[in-house]
Design goal:
Distance between the termini: 28 Å
Order of helices and strands: HHH
Low-confidence stretches: none
Radius of gyration: 21 Å
Strand content: under 5%
Mean pLDDT: 84
Largest sheet: none
Number of domains: 2
Number of strands: 0
Structural class: mainly alpha
Length: 110
């Protein structure tokens, strides 16, 4: 016989856990970009790039990126706090994933 209450508990815990991990990761990325540490790959050095940029277009994109970075309204202290918050979110994500692996693998908690 199937214990439906246990099934609902496991389904709810799975849903809640995935929402928490995805939310923490998203918040970490948002804080990372707010801190001015956007993950940017130079299209000319990325070998899998589909779009080929001309040097003129690459210079224009670089100017636009510098302008956007200088328009950040946060102070240096706020940027540092956002960076620390981003790293804390990423650490919590890793901790949640490792805890999930610990719960799944029985050899780890004998």
């Amino acid at each position: 016989m199937i214990d439906w209450a246990a099934f609902v508990v496991v389904a709810g815990a799975s849903l809640l856990g995935s929402v928490v991990v995805v939310s923490l990761y998203s918040l970490g990325l948002r804080l990372l970009t707010s801190a001015g540490r956007a993950l940017v790959v130079d299209p000319q050095s990325f070998t899998g790039a589909i779009t080929i940029l001309t040097p003129k277009r690459a210079a224009k994109e670089a100017r636009r990126a510098r302008k956007t970075a200088s328009a950040n309204p946060l102070t240096v202290g706020q940027k540092r706090l956002a960076l620390v918050g981003a790293y804390a979110c990423f650490v919590l994500c890793v901790g949640a994933v490792l805890y999930g692996v610990y719960l799944i693998v029985p050899a780890l908690h004998r």
